[in-house]
Amino acid sequence: MSQELWSAVDSYITTLLVPQDNALDAAIQASEAAGLPPIGVSPNLGKLLQILALVQGAHNILEIGTLGGYSTIWLARALPPGGRLVTLEADAKHLEVARANIAGAGLADVVELRLGLASDTLPQLAAENRGPFDLIFIDADKPGYPDYFRWALKLSRRGSLIIADNVVRNGAVVDPTSGDPRVQGIRRFNELLSAESRVSATAIQTLGSKGYDGFAIVLVTAEL
Ligand code: SAH
Ligand code: DHB
Ligand code: MG
Questions:
Q1: How far is the CA of 127 from the centre of ligand 3 (A)?
Q2: How far is Cα 158 from Cα 163, in angstroms, rounded to an integer?
Q3: What is the DSSP letter of 167?
Q4: How far is the CA of 88 from the centre of ligand 1 (A)?
Q5: Which residue has a Cα nearest atom 9 of ligand 2?
Q6: What confidence tens digit (pLDDT) does each residue in 15-50 have?
Q7: How far, in Å, from the CA of 142 to the mean position of ligand 1?
Q8: Domain with 26 in it: what CATH number?
Q9: Low-confidence ranges of the chain (pLDDT < 70)
Q10: Which residues constitute the domain of residue 202?
Q11: Whose CA is nearest to atom 5 of ligand 1?
Q12: What is the pLDDT of residues 154-177, one digit of tens each?
């Protein structure tokens, strides 16, 4: 099994099931041209996010980690009329690239972009009573995941769905001695999920054009 094969299968799946899309293609092009790292979700995982938001009937979505707005566009397109998505990004350049990409997708009125460290903007959202969110996508810096999960719960209701990207990290997540703070952040996040009685959680491994990684999928089951 090789990256080459995973990419070929991703391309096969995407060709069949994830049609060419001008706004999404333009977002990838513009992000690359601006020098952003190519670490957004793959097209088929973007569509998975969109399907989960549709199943959820999400009206109010929170994303932590915008980059160029690629996953933002997938999620925001699942919103019904009057729905809103708030996305949090610490890097001003990333945020401005995302703003243009989101406007190009016709979603400027639906998406609110907030600049700042998520450790600052999450408490601000809570203080503004901006929640509860129906779906929260965690995809910013990995050492921050435990903190982001605690805030995500505070910003949730019974029935909210919390999804976290990058919970497998090429398998590094199984190494308790890892010296990588990103791996340790993900391990602490997974341990928080394990210990949290108010949620029902699982995680899936993903292979594809972006390598070997995974999604955690967390349903808030308790009245908060
Ligand atoms: N969700 C995007 C990818 C996000 S990449 C997609 O799939 O298309 C992670 C992003 O998190 C980067 O843009 C990075 O600048 C941002 N980030 C890193 N640390 C952060 C922090 N402390 N607070 C908010 N955003 C942060
Ligand atoms: C990285 C971040 C991501 O969100 C991702 O999907 C892949 C890689 C990173 O910071 O390396
Ligand atoms: Mg990610």
A1: 27
A2: 15
A3: S
A4: 8
A5: 39
A6: 999 998 999 999 999 999 999 999 999 999 999 999
A7: 9
A8: 3.40.50.150
A9: none
A10: 3-220
A11: 67
A12: 999 999 999 999 999 999 999 999
Q: 165: Cβ below 6 Å to ligand 2?
A: yes
Separation of alpha carbons 185 and 98, rounded Å? 26
**H or E element in which residue 180 lies:** none
User: Total structural domains in the chain?
Assistant: 1
| Strand bridging mode 161-165 / 211-220 | antiparallel
Rounded Cα gap, residues 125 and 132, in angstroms: 10
> Closest ligand to 216 CA?
3
For residue 53, give both structure tokens. 């938001």
CA of 192 to the centre of ligand 1 (A): 21
- Sign for the CA dihedral angle at 15, 21, 26, 27 comes to negative
User: CB of 148 within 8 A of CB of 140?
Assistant: yes
Q: How far apart are CA 68 and CA 28, in angstroms?
A: 8
Cα(12)–Cα(184) distance, rounded to whole angstroms?
Answer: 34
